[in-house]
Amino acid sequence: MQTANPPALPVLVTDYNMPEMDGCMLCTEIRRNSKLKGTKIIVLSSSVGVAQSEFGSLDISAFLYKPIKQSELFNALVSTVGARNPMSPVPLPILAE
């Protein structure tokens, strides 16, 4: 049995408000990219009018309104990556040498 390759970027934390495109447009592009399709996405927003429902079927792991506490972001990351023991070290991939 073959296992699927993990996405090139396991987790992305992004803001909704950006100069060239908004977070929804970014998430749409990520979902279209076969190398990033499995990326878990956490969206931050300071805009009160933005709702998680705007992201429709884009499979957003968490949507947080700013300002957020460090513990809220930590909890969202732990929930998103599914860490069994959040205090155990997680090896990070080496991107370039």
Helix coverage percent: 10-25%
Extract low-pLDDT stretches: none
- In terms of quaternary structure, what is this? single chain
State the order of secondary-structure elements, H for helix, E for strand. EHEEH
Range of strand content: 15-25%
Q: What spatial order of strands do you see in the largest sheet? A: 1-2-3
Secondary structure tally: strands? 3
| Radius of gyration over all CA atoms, rounded | 15 Å
The number of helices is 2
Profile the largest sheet: 3 strands, parallel
Shape: globular
Average of the residue pLDDT scores: 80
The rounded distance between the terminal residues' Cα atoms is 32 Å
Class computed from helices, strands and strand pairing: alpha/beta
What does this structure look like?
The protein is an alpha/beta fold. Helix content is 23%, strand content 15%. The protein is built from two helices and three strands. Strands 1-2-3 form a three-stranded parallel sheet, with helices on one face. Strand 1 (11-15), helix 1 (23-32) and strand 2 (40-45) form a beta-alpha-beta unit.
Keywords:
3-stranded parallel beta sheet; 97 residues; single chain; alpha/beta; 2 helices; 3 strands
Set down the secondary structure blueprint.
Elements: E1 11-15, H1 23-32, E2 40-45, E3 62-65, H2 70-81
Parallel strand pairs: 1-2, 2-3
Describe this structure in a few short sentences:
With about 100 residues, this protein is of the alpha/beta class.
